[in-house]
Specification:
The complex is a heterodimer of chains A (about 475) and B (about 350). Chain A is an all-alpha fold and about 475 residues long. Chain A contains 22 helices and no strands. Among the domains of chain A are: about 180 residues, Cyclin A, domain 1 (Orthogonal Bundle), CATH 1.10.472.10; about 35 residues; about 60 residues, no CATH class. In chain A, α11 packs across α14. The longest helix of chain A has about 35 residues. The two termini of chain A are about 40 Å apart. With about 350 residues, chain B is α+β, with helices and mostly antiparallel strands. Chain B has a 5-stranded antiparallel β-sheet with strand order 1-2-3-5-4. In chain B, strands 6-8-9 form a 3-stranded antiparallel β-sheet. In chain B, strands 7-10 form a two-stranded antiparallel sheet. In chain B, a hairpin with a 3-residue loop joins β1 and β2. The relative contact order of chain B is 0.13. The chains are: A mainly alpha (about 475), B alpha+beta (about 350).
């Protein structure tokens, strides 16, 4: 896949990284990584998946051939596998993904009793992962537990690996640990997923905030709305719509008239607000940051339009016309209904069977190609290490020459700890430190600095202390 | 190559890693530069290779929140990339921290300076709270200062989201000297007021130039707090004797403790007293604190550039006790063995506050 396609997903990394240029949006959702990097048009999603699928077919074809060579070179008699009936199509991949997403819910609810936030986050991770990887390269049966394990940690409900592993059949700790990093990397290290549950409950509160609130109707349809929400997790809704739109759709599907009456009320009573509340007081408070919500925190925040609509915000209720909002809601409802259809397990098994013949041999432990790649990698790392040592050795050798021949009394190496000058970053110290690193290689380079060194290094910058801080975590 | 790996490679390419400037068991910090601009950055390399339970939760938390929070008074996470099994956080480079500034006896603070630091801390905190996050480890140490004097809140290793009614939170957070009484009494349901207490103690520390409530143990922390301010009455803090870990630490008389910070002026004293109210529900929010008269009355806060700063930027300083001491306190089992708990200074160290204050 080309880079251009990848960055179509949202604003480029570059601009997002430059936080000073990032003006706070009208709500915290607009500043979230989810809004910035994980929203797509339906066509964009289809393109990404098509391209991933195509590329994987090429890779698998190539690697199957390489596997044959590798086996022969190892002296194995290579038995030609039955030719892949056909590679997986995008919809095959999605079927499998959908099946494993539904497994996450089952495991969470029956296995661990983990709260819903873990479940929905894990499912989002799984879906995001397969926007960067193909099922043919990484089988979801291995990735799903990893997503769950990671999501439990990022949502503050960590499960110890020792307690996690036995809940799955045929899962080893290595299966999770080996892929955890891959998953984190595929997620772009963006772990905060804004689920729609809070939005859904927020709508529930908003709907109570109207004349003659239909309290009975609200509490009666809440369970249905929540179950609609669960079904939405199995769809692409979160990639296309905002949490508040999905939450509203979940209510609307449960009881259309409840939502429509409420929206009629909201739209008919809406008075556009003017952003003119800058008293002298606020000026002091805001300073140069200027990041205060000029309207105060309003409950209307819960419903934002798509990025296109956010411009017209403040002029219209929820940033868009009622008809448009209802149109979006009905689109989401169609997706939710799709999500409610049970996965055909027979079909899943059929796809899985075909997948066995067209998985990337490079990624399956035990294949000749896997062994070969591992050896290559180890060799490359070893030579890189050797090169580094060489470099350090020659650096320290030449270092002495830079300043000419040694003086009769060489200066004390660590005198900086007593001086007030900013000489911590002198080449001399660097050299000492790198020498020490070398010496420690066998002990994994983890030997702490001597107190004296630590003091001197510590004074250099605030970040240093951060580094030292980490010693607290064992 | 996988798409994710390729994207990662492109990100890694943007940065030059320079010399190591700090070393810890689980992270090293390097000086670095952005290749395109030459801008100075700090690269925090978290080692994750041999963790028994995979990626470290502190690191995950830090990354999770810094990815979402973008504000002039919060340290900026510029990028995340990985090399082999290490996570690298690219952070903006900051020269020093408020702790170093407070301890530098060569510096003299004006009230306008203190006001400026307080305003910047509260602005950052207001943003954090507005985004549904509790910091849970505010202390001068974690308030970093940039080259142009701007204060930036850092270290989100203990942060978490809040607002899920009914979800219990751990009370083992916030470094002891800055920990509010409700946490010392074991409250498992709390909110933004815990961070406000920390800011309140930091405010007093900026005025006194020594930690305000420097307890040697958790019990001692309560004693010192009540000794300074008087044991709370039921009226002042309704229902606090019902908190899970409540115990009687003795009845101390009410004490007009704010007299010792009279130099900050009446408005400042008033704000400090507000932020250090025993009843969490009566403490002001960060936003309310910013709207306090203290910030709109004379003198105007000092511009960040003009704030006092240690003269020698890279001057070595003594480590705070909690940086040199001990291993993390880990929960014995079950509940959250992988979670980091707040580290608190032990008995020895800078225990001078009492004498100075109440002599």
């Amino acid at each position: 896949m080309t880079v251009a396609t990848a960055s179509q997903a949202g604003p480029s990394r570059q601009s997002a990284a430059d936080s000073s240029a990032l003006t706070p949006g009208p709500t915290s959702y607009h500043e979230s990584s989810q809004f910035r990097h994980w929203r797509y048009s339906p066509a964009g999603l289809a393109d990404i998946r098509q391209e991933l699928n195509q590329r994987s077919v090429e890779v698998v074809t190539k690697n199957t051939a390489l596997e044959k060579e590798a086996q022969i070179s190892l002296g194995h008699t290579y038995t030609e596998p039955p030719a892949p009936a056909s590679y997986l199509t995008v919809s095959d991949e999605l079927l499998l993904l959908r099946f494993y997403c539904s497994q996450v819910s089952k495991i969470c609810r029956q296995g661990f009793g983990l709260p819903e936030v873990v479940e929905s986050t894990a499912i989002s991770y799984l879906k995001r992962f397969y926007l960067k990887n193909s099922v043919m390269e990484w089988h979801p049966k291995n990735i799903m537990p990893t997503c769950l394990f990671l999501a439990a940690k990022t949502t503050n409900y960590p499960v110890l690996l020792d307690q996690f592993i036995p809940r799955f059949s045929k899962l080893t700790p290595a299966d999770v640990l080996d892929t955890e990093f891959l998953v984190a990397q595929s997620l772009g290290f963006e772990f905060w997923v804004r689920g729609a549950e809070k939005a859904l409950r927020g709508w529930g509160l908003d709907m109570q905030n109207q004349p003659n609130p239909p309290l009975e109707g609200i509490s009666k349809s809440l369970p249905t709305a929540l179950s609609n929400l669960s079904a939405s997790l199995l769809t692409d809704a979160e990639f296309i719509y905002t949490p508040s739109q999905i939450g509203l759709a979940a209510w609307h599907l449960a009881d259309p008239s409840l939502v429509e009456t409420f929206l009629d009320h909201r739209y008919s009573t809406y008075v556009p607000s003017k952003n003119t509340s800058t008293s002298a007081d606020d000026a002091v408070v805001n300073g140069s940051a200027g990041d205060f919500d000029p309207n105060g925190t309003s409950s209307n925040d819960s419903a934002e339009g798509n990025s296109g609509e956010s411009q017209s915000e403040g002029e219209e209720m929820y940033g868009m016309k009622q008809s448009r909002l209802l149109h979006i809601v009905s689109d989401i409802e169609k997706m939710i209904k799709d999500g409610q259809v049970e996965v055909d397990v027979k079909k899943v098994k059929e796809v899985d069977k075909r997948l066995k013949q067209c998985s990337n041999p490079e990624k399956i432990p035990g294949t000749a190609l896997y062994v070969k790649r591992k050896r290559e990698k180890e060799a490359a790392e070893a030579s890189a290490k050797a090169a580094k040592h060489q470099k350090l050795a020659s650096a320290s050798a030449s270092d002495g020459d830079i300043f000419g021949s040694a003086l009769s009394a060489p200066p004390p190496l660590l005198s900086i700890s007593n001086s007030t000058s900013s000489s911590v970053i002198s080449p001399r110290l660097t050299q000492i430190k790198s020498e020490q690193d070398n010496g420690n290689e066998s002990a994994d380079g983890r030997k702490p600095l001597s107190p004296r060194q630590r003091l001197s290094v510590n004074g250099s910058a605030a970040q240093v202390r951060e580094g030292v801080d980490m010693t607290k975590d064992v | 190559m996988d798409l994710a790996a390729r994207e990662n490679g492109q990100r890694a390419e943007r940065w030059n890693k320079g010399i190591k400037i700090g070393e810890g068991t689980f992270a090293n910090v390097y000086k670095g530069t952005e290749k395109a601009t030459g801008r100075k950055v700090a690269i925090k390399k978290i080692k994750v290779g041999e963790m028994k339970d995979g990626l470290d939760m502190t690191a995950l938390r830090e990354v999770k929140f810094l990815q979402e929070l973008h504000h002039p008074n919060i340290i900026a996470l510029l990028d995340v990339f990985s090399v082999k099994q290490n996570v690298n956080l690219v952070l903006e480079f900051l020269d020093t921290d408020l702790e170093a500034v407070i301890r530098d006896k060569a510096l003299i603070f004006q009230n306008a300076d203190i006001k400026s630091w307080m305003a910047m801390s509260l602005r950052g905190l207001e943003y954090i709270h507005r985004h549904g996050v509790l910091h849970r480890d505010l202390k001068p140490n974690n308030l970093l200062i940039s080259a142009n004097g701007e204060l930036k809140i850092a270290d989100f290793g203990l942060a978490r989201e809040f607002g899920d009614a009914g979800s219990k939170m751990t009370c083992q957070v916030i470094t002891r000297w800055y920990r509010p009484p409700e946490l010392l009494f074991g409250s498992r349901f709390y909110s933004t007021a815990v961070d406000m207490w920390s800011i309140g103690t930091i405010f007093v520390e900026l005025i006194l130039r020594v930690p305000f409530l420097a307890g040697e143990t958790d019990i001692d922390q309560l004693k010192k707090t009540f000794h300074a301010m008087g044991t709370p009455t039921e009226q002042e803090w309704p229902g606090y004797t019902k908190l899970p870990d409540y115990h009687d630490v003795g009845a101390y008389p009410k004490n007009p403790w704010w007299n010792m910070i009279s130099s900050i002026g009446k408005e400042g004293q008033d704000l400090a007293r507000d932020m250090l109210k025993f009843d969490p529900l009566t403490r002001p929010s960060a936003k309310q604190a910013l709207q306090h008269r203290f910030f709109s009355s004379y003198p105007r806060p000092t511009a960040p550039k003009a704030l006092p700063k240690p003269l020698a930027e890279l001057r070595p300083r003594e480590l705070a006790p909690d940086e040199t001491k001990g291993k993390p306190l880990l929960a014995p089992s079950g509940n959250g063995p992988m979670k980091r708990k707040a580290e608190s200074p032990q008995a020895a160290g800078r225990n001078v506050a009492r004498k100075l204050v109440f002599a």
